[in-house]
Amino acid sequence: xxxxxxxxxxxxxxxxxxxxxxxxxxxxxxxxxxxxxxxxxxxxxxxxxxxxxxxxxxxxxxxxxxxxxxxxxxxxxxxxxxxxxxxxxxxxxxxxxxxxxxxxxxxxxxxxxxxxxxxxxxxxxxxxxxxxxxxxxxxxxxxxxxxxxxxxxxxxxxxxxxxxxxxxxxxxxxxxxxxxxxxxxxxxxxxxxxxxxxxxxxxxxxxxxxxxxxxxxxxxxxxxxxxxxxxxxxxxxxxxxxxx
Length: 244
Ligand code: 6PG
Fold this sequence. Notes:
Elements: E1 2-7, H1 10-32, E2 35-39, H2 46-53, E3 65-69, E4 71-73, H3 83-92, H4 112-131, E5 137-140, E6 165-170, E7 175-180, H5 182-185, E8 190-195, H6 201-209, E9 228-234
Parallel strand pairs: 1-9, 2-3, 2-5, 5-8, 8-9
Antiparallel strand pairs: 4-7, 6-7
Helix pairs in contact: 1-2, 2-3
Bound molecules: 6-phosphogluconic acid.
6-phosphogluconic acid is lined by residues 40-44, 71, 73, 83, 141-143, 147-150.
């Protein structure tokens, strides 16, 4: 099931995302006594994380939540570029989440392929086997070029159907990025995809209303096999949609 939810601005978007996060988390904890969530990186989710750690702090049994990351930059965990650092500053440390329940990419591993194999074949594989399921919630952002996680247009990882996690060479960045693959994303029970700001409007319109071209707009491949996807976008990002 796909829902497109348009909110006034980033603040309203972040509150709605936090409320949806809480709702999904509590449903999962009620069913499974645990909640497996992959956090998104970039800047858009930060306000949602800050709200979860403050206004919504008491709304979830945080000691039943297992945190993962949908993607990561090829940087140390204390780098300002690190998705882990952003989430740790905004959410994990303020909530005093124990390190044992935070599964970050071990970017200190020298070889990018070894680091990706570690995350896919050990971290994710063991977690999914132990839980008997994939992510209960996959949080994602959207780049102005239509990328999501670190699945960039025309990049090798778009066609990865076996591995759970890869090191993806991103030509336009001249760098490797770590990312889960579409099989992982589409095995999730719920996906929340956040997009805020006018610079995302062209990609949003192309993805939601344009022709299917996932090499050009990888986020078009976010189609949970048996799950819900919530496109949470603000008015500026929805500005070019015809159906609003
Ligand atoms: C990353 C993210 C990436 C991000 C988009 C949007 O590592 O940067 O995983 O997919 O969600 O690039 O980034 P902003 O939220 O900063 O616009």
